[in-house]
Specification:
The complex is a heterodimer of chains A (414) and B (316). Chain A has 414 residues and is mainly α. Chain A has 16 helices and 4 strands. A 4-stranded mixed beta sheet of chain A has the order 2-1-3-4, with helices on both faces. Chain A is elongated. Chain B folds into 2 domains: 169 residues, 3-Layer(aba) Sandwich (Rossmann fold), CATH 3.40.50; 69 residues, Alpha-Beta Plaits, CATH 3.30.70. In chain B, the strands form 3 sheets. Chain B has a 6-stranded mixed beta sheet, with helices on both faces.
C-alpha cells in the first residue's frame, strides 16, 4: 500500500513539472507533426501516406507498346496510387517537375515500339526517360518502379514472341515473310495479358488490392517519437530517485516505518506509472488529434505496458550506475539519442545491415516501433506475443540488475 | 525520571575517514524534557541524529528508544520517533496539505483521523490559511514550519529537531522556538541540535556539548557554567582613553572584584557578583572624575563553557 502511495506521489510530482511535461508530451507531438508535414501526411488527407501521386506522361511513340505504357498509368489498379496527366512535349513535362507540380515525368520516346520489337536498331535515344522530382524522392521511385515493371513485362513478351516465331518457323507452320507480323501479334497479346493486372500490382500489390491494410506514416512517426521521449521520462524518473537523496526526502522516508523494499518498489512503480501515462496520453492524442489508426486496442494497451516496463528498466539502471542526479540526466539524454538512432526512432532501420538490426534489439525503441507497425498493418495481440515477451524480458533483466546495483550502492543509507 | 532515550557509547566511522564522525557518545534523555545537543558545524550532531533515527547504521554502541534498540529493532523505533531534518525534506510542487497527507500515509495514518491531524498541525504552525498553496511559494521560515509539522503529524513520543532554525529570519526563528516550548509544555520529549548557544540556553532543561564527535560536557545550564566558575564580567566604556590604567588600578581594590585591566576606552573587571560590586565601581569612577559612557555585564554562558573546554569559540 505504501509503495502505491509513493508511486502515486511521484506521478503527481512529475505531472506538476511544466518543463518535464513539455518534453514528455509537447515535444513528441510537435516532432510527430513536423515529420508528418515533411512526409506530406498532413496535407489534409488521413489516408495512406502515398496516394494520388501526380505524374505526367509524354508519349511520343506512335506504336502499340508506348500506348500500352501510357494506358497502364491510368489503369484501375493504379487509380489510388497515381494521378496521371499527359503532356504533348518533353520540355513542358520537365517544367511541371521543375515547378514541383508533379513527382515525375515519364517520357516515352518516338520509335519505342519499333526498338522493342526489333523493327529497328535500338539506341540510347529509344530509352524511356523518367525525369524525377528530387524533392519527392520516394514518390518518384514509385513511378520508376511502375515503369521498370512494365518494361520487364515487355521484355518478357518480346522474348516470348521471338521464341514462338522460331518454333513456328522450325515447324514450317509459317513462312519467313510472315514471321515479323506473327511475332508482333504474340508480343502484343503477351503485354496486354500482363497489363491486365499482375505487372502493375507488383509495385504496390498489397496496398492497392487490400486498402484496409494501408499503413499510415503517422503510425510510424507517432510511436517513434513517443518512445524516443519515453526514454527521457524514465531517465527523469531515475534522476528523481537520486535527487530525493540529495533533498533529504529519501532520508525522511527511510526514517519512517516503511521497509526499504517498499520504498524502492514504490519508486520503481512510480517510474513505470509515469511512463505508462506518458505513452497512453501520446498514443491517444495522436489518435484523436491526427486520426492515426494504431490498430487492435488490446494489442496497443499491452504493448504500451511492455514498453513502459522495458524503458523503466533502463531508467533505473541509469540511476543505479550514476552517482548524482546530474549524471543521470547526462547519461539519460545520451541513451535517449543513441537508442533513437539504433532503435529507428529517427529513420526506419528495415534496410540496415543484419548486425545493425540485431544490435537494435537492446533498445525498447526497436521492439516498440516494430510492434506498433505490426498493429498498424492489422496484427492483433496474439501475433504480437514475441514483441511483448521481448520487452517484458528486457524489463525483467534490467530490473534485477538495477535493484542489485542499487542495494550495493546503499542508496537508503544517509 | 525514566529515560525515553538512552545512548550507549555510540560510534560512527565512515569508510575512508581518518577519525570517527561520532566517537563513543553516551547520554540519556528523560521523558518530557528538551535536551539540546550543542556544538559547532561538523561536531557530529547530525550524524548522531542520523543513527538515532535509523537512517545510519552505527559502527559501534547502541541507542535504546523506549526499550527498543536502533540496531536490532529499528521498525519499532521508527514508530516512536519523529524526525525534523536540517534540510527542507518536502516536495516543493505539492501543497502543504498534500505533503502532510503523504507523510501521514507513510506513518500509516489515513482517512478522517489524518485530515483532523493535518488541520490541527497546520493550526499549530500557523499556516492554516496557506495550507493549499504549493510549498515552493513559501518563504524560508514557512517551509521550516511545515518541515517541522511533517515530523510531528503522527504525534511521536520523541522528536528529533536537527538545527531547525538554520538560515531563517529572526521572526521565524522566534516562532519556531515558541513552538518547541509549546510542544514540550504538552508533554513532548525533544532532542534539539543547534550551534546557537542562546537557543540551547533558552529551550533546554539539559544540554550536551559535542565537539569532534565526542560529548565533552553534559548537564543543566547551571551545572555547565559552574565548570568555568561563578564569575561575572563587567565591561566599562569610558570617555577618556588615558584614564583607563588609573581606573583599573583603583577598581582592582574594590571588594568582590577579582581582576581589572584596561584597554583603550574599556576597563574589564571580573567579579564574584556584578550586581553587588557595581554601585561601588561607579562610585570610584565618579570620585576620580572619569566619565563612564557605557556598562555591560556578562554572566557565564555556554560560549564561555565551550571556550573553557576546547580553547575555541563555538562558531570558529
Amino acid at each position: 500500500m505504501k509503495a502505491l502511495q509513493i508511486a502515486f506521489k511521484d506521478l503527481t510530482v512529475l505531472f506538476r513539472d511544466r518543463t518535464a511535461l513539455l518534453l514528455m508530451l509537447g515535444a513528441p507531438l510537435i516532432l510527430t507533426v513536423g515529420l508528418a508535414l515533411i512526409s506530406g501526411r498532413m496535407s489534409g488527407s488521413s489516408g495512406p501516406a502515398f496516394q494520388n501521386l501526380p505524374v505526367v506522361i509524354v508519349n511520343l511513340d506512335q506504336g502499340v507498346v508506348g500506348g500500352q505504357l501510357a494506358d497502364a498509368f491510368s489503369s484501375d489498379e493504379l487509380d489510388d496510387l497515381l494521378n496521371p496527366q499527359t503532356a504533348e512535349d518533353a520540355a513542358a513535362a520537365r517544367a511541371l517537375v521543375n515547378d514541383d507540380k508533379v513527382v515525375a515525368a515519364v517520357i516515352i520516346p518516338a520509335g519505342f515500339t519499333d526498338a522493342v520489337t526489333g523493327a529497328k536498331e535500338s539506341g540510347a535515344a529509344d530509352r524511356i526517360e523518367i525525369y524525377a522530382n528530387p524533392n519527392r524522392e520516394i514518390s518518384s521511385q514509385i513511378v520508376t518502379a511502375v515503369v521498370e515493371s512494365f518494361v520487364q513485362q515487355v521484355e518478357l513478351a518480346r522474348v516470348s514472341g521471338q521464341v514462338a516465331v522460331e518454333q513456328l518457323l522450325a515447324a514450317g507452320l509459317i513462312n519467313p515473310q510472315e514471321a515479323a507480323a506473327v511475332g508482333m501479334r504474340v508480343a502484343e497479346r503477351s503485354v496486354s495479358a500482363q497489363n491486365s493486372g499482375a505487372a502493375i500490382r507488383l509495385v504496390s500489390a498489397e496496398k492497392s488490392t487490400e486498402p484496409e491494410q494501408d499503413f499510415d506514416m503517422m503510425g510510424y512517426f507517432a510511436p517513434s517519437m513517443a518512445i524516443l521521449f519515453l526514454m527521457y521520462t524514465v531517465a527523469l524518473g531515475g534522476r528523481n530517485l537520486l535527487a530525493e537523496k540529495e533533498t533529504g526526502t529519501l532520508g525522511r522516508l527511510v526514517s519512517a516505518p516503511i521497509s526499504e523494499t517498499a520504498i524502492l518498489g514504490g519508486k520503481l512503480l512510480g517510474i513505470f506509472l509515469v511512463a505508462t501515462a506518458q505513452m497512453s496520453i501520446l498514443i491517444l492524442a495522436n489518435a484523436l488529434l491526427f486520426g492515426v489508426k494504431f490498430g487492435d486496442p488490446l494489442g496497443v494497451a499491452v504493448l504500451i505496458l511492455a514498453l513502459a516496463a522495458a524503458a523503466s528498466g533502463w531508467g533505473i539502471l541509469v540511476a543505479a550506475i550514476a552517482r548524482t542526479p546530474g549524471q543521470v540526466s547526462t547519461i539519460g539524454m545520451a541513451l535517449m539519442l543513441t537508442f533513437g538512432v539504433l532503435g529507428g526512432s529517427f529513420i526506419p532501420i528495415n534496410n540496415m545491415p543484419a548486425w545493425f538490426n540485431l544490435v537494435s534489439k537492446i533498445t525498447p525503441n526497436a521492439w516498440g516501433i516494430e510492434g506498433f507497425i505490426a498493429l498498424g498493418y492489422g496484427d492483433t495481440l496474439p501475433q504480437l506475443a514475441g514483441t511483448v515477451a521481448g520487452l517484458f524480458g528486457m524489463a525483467a533483466v534490467l530490473f534485477i540488475v538495477s535493484v542489485t546495483l542499487l542495494r550495493r550502492k546503499n542508496l537508503m543509507q544517509g | 525520571m525514566a529515560l525515553i532515550l538512552e545512548v550507549q557509547d555510540l560510534v560512527k566511522q565512515y569508510p575512508g575517514a581518518a577519525e570517527p564522525a561520532v566517537n563513543g557518545v553516551s547520554f540519556g534523555i528523560r521523558r518530557g524534557e528538551v535536551f539540546s545537543l550543542l556544538g559547532p558545524n561538523g561536531a557530529g550532531k547530525t550524524t548522531t541524529i542520523g543513527m538515532l533515527s535509523c537512517l545510519l547504521k552505527p559502527t559501534g554502541g547502541d541507542a535504546i528508544v523506549d526499550g527498543h534498540s536502533v540496531r536490532t529493532d529499528p521498525e519499532a523505533v521508527k514508530r516512536l520517533i519523529g524526525i525534523v531534518p536540517q534540510d527542507i525534506a518536502l516536495y516543493p510542487s505539492l501543497s502543504a496539505r498534500e505533503n502532510l497527507r503523504f507523510w501521514g500515509w507513510m506513518y500509516g495514518l489515513g482517512g478522517k483521523d489524518l485530515a483532523r491531524r493535518i488541520d490541527a498541525i497546520l493550526e499549530t504552525v500557523g499556516l492554516t490559511d496557506r495550507g493549499n498553496d504549493r510549498v515552493d511559494s513559501y518563504s524560508g521560515g514557512m517551509k521550516r514550519r511545515i518541515n517541522i509539522a511533517a515530523g510531528l503529524l503522527h504525534e511521536p513520543k520523541l522528536v528529533f529537531l536537527d538545527e531547525p532554525t538554520v538560515g531563517i529570519d529572526p521572526q521565524s526563528r522566534r516562532n519556531i522556538l515558541e513552538m518547541v516550548k509549546a510542544l514540550n509544555a504538552q508533554g513532548m520529549t525533544v532532542l534539539y541540535t543547534t550551534h546557537y548557544m542562546e537557543e540551547a540556553q533558552e529551550l533546554s532543561q539539559r544540554i550536551g556539548i559535542i565537539d569532534n564527535g565526542k560529548l565533552i560536557a553534559l548537564g543543566t545550564l547551571d551545572e555547565l557554567t559552574r565548570l568555568v566558575g561563578r564569575q561575572d564580567e563587567i565591561e566599562l566604556k569610558i570617555a577618556s582613553e588615558h584614564a583607563g590604567p588609573e581606573l583599573a588600578e583603583a577598581l582592582g581594590k574594590v571588594k568582590g572584584v577579582r581582576s581589572a585591566r584596561s584597554e583603550d576606552h574599556t576597563v574589564r573587571l571580573v567579579a564574584d557578583d556584578a550586581n553587588a560590586s557595581l554601585p561601588e565601581v561607579i562610585g570610584v569612577a565618579n570620585a576620580r572624575g572619569i566619565k563612564v559612557i557605557g556598562i555591560d555585564v556578562r554572566e557565564p554562558n555556554l560560549e564561555a563553557v565551550f571556550l573553557h573546554l576546547t580553547g575555541r569559540a563555538l562558531r570558529d
